[in-house]
Amino acid sequence: MQPELTRIRGVLVLESQDVSTSDDPLTAFLERRGWTSKLIDKTQESISRKLTIDFFGKEENLSGLEISLQNDIDSYFHMSLNSVRK
Q1: Distance (Å, rounded) from C-alpha 29 to C-alpha 22?
Q2: Which of 12, 11, 40, 45 has the alpha carbon at shortest distance from 24?
Q3: Alpha-carbon distance values, 57 to 44, 49, 51, 52, 54 (Å)
């Protein structure tokens, strides 16, 4: 005679947690997309430095990270504008 096997059933419960810590709607949106406040500030400073006109005509291209931040900010304003129009 074999011992009776007890089946244990687990229940997986998923709860969503808001990862944003900011009260600013734009920063909260960016945090939900994976950006941290420190990375946002650092990337914005880098963008500002690169887009400021140099006296000697030197130009720097934006990195993929900088372009990604600008695209995410554009997405936020595009979504906000669409919600106002409805």
Answers
A1: 9
A2: 40
A3: 21, 13, 11, 10, 5
Residues 21/31, Cβ–Cβ less than 8 Å: yes
pLDDT tens digits in sequence order for the chain, 86 residues long: 566 667 777 888 888 888 788 899 999 999 999 999 999 999 999 999 999 888 888 889 999 999 999 999 999 999 988 777 76
Give the CB-side neighbour count of residue 23, counting CA atoms within 13 A: 0
Residue 71 DSSP SS3: helix
Residue that the structure tokens 């096997």 belong to = 5
The continuous run of DSSP H or E covering 44 comes out as: helix 37-51
